[in-house]
Amino acid sequence: MSVDIAVIDYGMGNLRSVSKAIEHVAPAASVVVTSDPAVIAAAGRVVFPGQGAAPDCMREIDARGLRQVISDAARSKPFLGICMGMQVLFEHSEEGDTACLGILPGAVQRFPHEAMVDADGNKLKVPHMGWNNVHQAVPHPLWAGIEEGARFYFVHSYFVQPTSPEVIAGFSHYPFPFTCAVASGNIFAVQFHPEKSQNDGLTLLGNFVTWNPGEIDSACDMSGAACA
Amino acid sequence: MLAKRIIPCLDVTHGRVVKGINFVELKDAGDPVEIARRYNEAGADELTFLDITASSDDRDLILHIIEDVAAEVFIPLTVGGGVREVGDVQRLLNAGADKVSINTSAVVNPQLVKDAADRYGSQCIVVAIDSKRVGDHWEVFTHGGRKATGLDAVEWAKKMASLGAGELLLTSMDRDGTKSGFDLELTRAISDAVDIPIIASGGVGNLQHLVDGVREGHADAVLAASIFHFGEYGIDEAKKYMKQHGIEVRL
Prior knowledge:
The complex is a heterodimer. By secondary structure, chain A is α/β, with parallel strands linked by helices. Chain A is built from 7 helices and 14 strands. Chain A has a single domain (about 5-220), classed as Rossmann fold (3-Layer(aba) Sandwich), CATH 3.40.50. Chain A has helices spanning about 15-25, 35-40, 55-65, 65-75, 85, 200-210, 215-220; strands spanning about 5-10, 30-35, 45-50, 80, 90-95, 100, 105-110, 130-135, 135, 150-155, 160, 170-175, 175-185, 185-190. Chain A has an 8-stranded mixed β-sheet, with helices on both faces. In chain A, helix 1 crosses helix 6 (about 200-210). The longest helix of chain A has 13 residues, at about 200-210. The radius of gyration of chain A is 16 Å and the shape is globular. The N and C termini of chain A lie far apart (about 35 Å). Chain B is an alpha/beta fold. Chain B has one domain (about 5-245): TIM Barrel. Chain B contains 10 helices and 12 strands. Chain B has an 8-stranded parallel β-barrel with strand order 1-4-5-6-7-10-11-12, surrounded by 8 helices. In chain B, about 55% of the residues are buried. The chains are: A alpha/beta, B alpha/beta. The interface of A and B includes residues 13, 124, 130 and 202 of A.
């Protein structure tokens, strides 16, 4: 059976919120939470969420034989990474010194303890938890209808550092600027939780379920410049 | 910039939201799904549900409530009350909770906090600490505030953070229901002692108390129930007040 949207379940955390939010914005679509590589391979779109620790994520991905199908999906169809599902797309995570999927060049690092002070000298907590402003680094179909600087809900202790700045689609500050959204071809990935970010989050998910990356490919080169 | 969060708390029993004073004298405040919907529209940053049902018979009621809320409210939902084992955490997450709050069981079995955090991630494990001033320090109480534990609240907070709690929900039992403001000393002592976020709770009677909780208590989030349930203040009104006083909020 082929499904419209597959939400990849690899045993890392609660995926119910993600699937409920997608069902909410795409009531006519068939949305399946699955760890079956065949279902993921046949799906029209793939959402790759995840919570927890990077070493566990990579272990669970491999334990379920999902590495290849995730890589294939990330290269071939609309693909949305969320939170840990964004981080493990990169090459390496400082968390547990973990080799990740290596689909995007770059690494994942922890908010450095010594930097976690705000402008008034107050300690900043880690995890970075709550609603923060997301600045759109490039125009992208997934930002449609979302105001520059809109707040999204975050909860994480690590952030991605892409090797190529061209993939940076959005950034936030805590207290320094860090990448919170990346876009590369048919991949869009976010550190925040659109499924928990009320109206703007639902708008982003709604944009994803109607996104046709092929249109971007013809509209701009993948250096990321002027993708509209 | 990261916003300080305002979290309305819904104490639920027999399928209704209630509010007590000093943990007793319950007063009906309405239907949980309806109240959750209203708070979401008013701009609440998260919602916390505490299942204060005493008997296990009604335990499943909260699951249905969370399912109904999660189907239409897309902000973080925390659920606590009666969480005794990892299976309880799983049931609440499956119903649509994003975070699960553990209180008495964390004292009875601290390993539960570690096991739950290892299994589901620290981001969804909140440890609730009910604390009361005893002499020159604060002590942890359990069983809805009825049982002293002998544990020092600051040391307990550090231990819970080290076991994997992602956040602490700190309630001053001296202040809960009194409308005299948070215990700012307690809040600051714990917030400064740990790296994880602190939700201040217990005692909010006016909007200045929310500002004080952040400013002087160093809280990352403020939780209140009765001032919102009984319509004394709106969430949006509270946020505007905090913003006027220089606190970053989501408007």
